Amino acid sequence: MLTRVKSAVANFMGGIMSGGGSGADQLNGTDLPPRFPYSRPDFLGLSQDEVECSADHIARPILILKESRSLPWATGYAEVINAGKSTHNEDQACCDVIRVKKKVAAPITPSKNSSAKRRSSLPNGEGSQHKDNPDTEGIIFNYWALFDGHAGAGAAVVASKLLHHQIAEHLQEVVDVLRNSAVLPPTCLGDEPEVGNNTRTLTRAASLRGGVGVPGSPSTPSTRFFIEKKISHESLIIGAIENAFKDMDDQIEREKSTYNISGGCTALIAVCMMGKLYVSNAGDSRAIIICNGEVIPMSSEFTPETERQRLQYLACLQPHLLGNEFTHLEFPRRVQRKELGKKMLYRNYNMTGWAYKTIEEDDLKFPLIYGEGKKARVMATIGVTRGLGDHDLKVHDSNIHIKPFLSCTPEVRVYDLLENEHGADDALVIATDGLWDVLSNKEVSEAVTSFLSNCDPDDAHRYTLAAQDLVMRARGVLKDRGWRISNDRLGSGDDISVYIIPLLYGSKQT
């Protein structure tokens, strides 16, 4: 175990290691075809030669959109490859506008006297309803996504091609409910929904009495023995996104037997529909809204430190996952054998503070979470705790699987575009951790606000130029001592991808 740990610890500075899979895993990686070939985002419109030129780890060219209107809302985008951390740029991006239509039911042959046939026979379609026109059915949503791959770009590429389709499929199941915004979603599909403004919660006594009216009279509602929760349309959209992440993770696992889908990836997406932004994060990328110069965080990073209690609790409930080589307890440093019987500071899953415990033999095992900050790792292997993929990831040179500790469930935050007035300089900034490792929320906000204020408000290309400026600030300039940014700080050596999404366009289109 000690040899394995030393080997894993040696990889701390080099990023997330591949996980040392079995021989079968390595064979599959070389023999199976990729699910999708490696490329840069489709909206960049790069030729194969340009893709190869973008992989220059020495020059690190910044890629931007060729056409200012190639993305919805005049969204700005820029990216740059890492300084040699991996062969490819393991970040991937996707942006699309998707119409979700109701699922087409099996056709029913109408009878001679059916009302449907009578309506269709009227001149100019008179009497036909809006819902009968397939071109006007459904709901449109705007979609932006960033995926930060590790141990290969395979999972990130797959997620960039398919996740938005998974979301559309889940929204398709509730599109009729979402379109009927005047009433609350029914508890069971097919039931008559209750009008939201006229509902009231019945007390248990009133429920048993059947509400108001004389028993047996026509005005007496049916007897109810339950009280229903009122579910919002917003919650349905959140649930569709959460299930889409789960299905995407399951699909990657299924298809690994057929395709070479390497590694895993974090996922950060923004969906705009029905006047609201839904920002969903599984990983350590970050999104912020800049509105009137103020910063509104729209995500939180999921790392071994931020999810310490969840990871410890799982390990405590299922100790077999630790392979008898790790301890779920946290100590300020590695426990030494000479400290057996002494009291040392520790934390368990139920604690935010610290206490002392007497050191026992089991406490000498390697800690579940090792290191701190950007160097913190789960089982000395991986530095993120949420994302997609990583199904074959194991502790180096062992048979201990790490996937049980990694969640694909995103955190979803909602921003109502109609609650605030938005100017041309208000934006949603979405970026991978390559940006946030070296720039704070405040620095990003000040940089974007300053840049946009010096641009023509009518210039749609201003947002891409602002994204380029951000990437340049985080990458820095190559000097004798490496890439340096302002105040001679160390620049980001990681892949960097940035969207700047103007909120003014979203407010106009809601």
UniProtKB/TrEMBL annotation:
Disordered: annotated span: 108-134
GO molecular function: [pyruvate dehydrogenase (acetyl-transferring)]-phosphatase activity
Any one Gene Ontology cellular component term annotated for this protein: mitochondrion
Top-level division of the source organism's lineage: Eukaryota
Domain PPM-type phosphatase: 116-503
Protein known as: Protein phosphatase, Mg2+/Mn2+ dependent 1H
Organism expressing this protein natively: Callorhinchus milii (Ghost shark)
Lineage: Eukaryota, Metazoa, Chordata, Craniata, Vertebrata
Gene name linked to the record: ppm1h
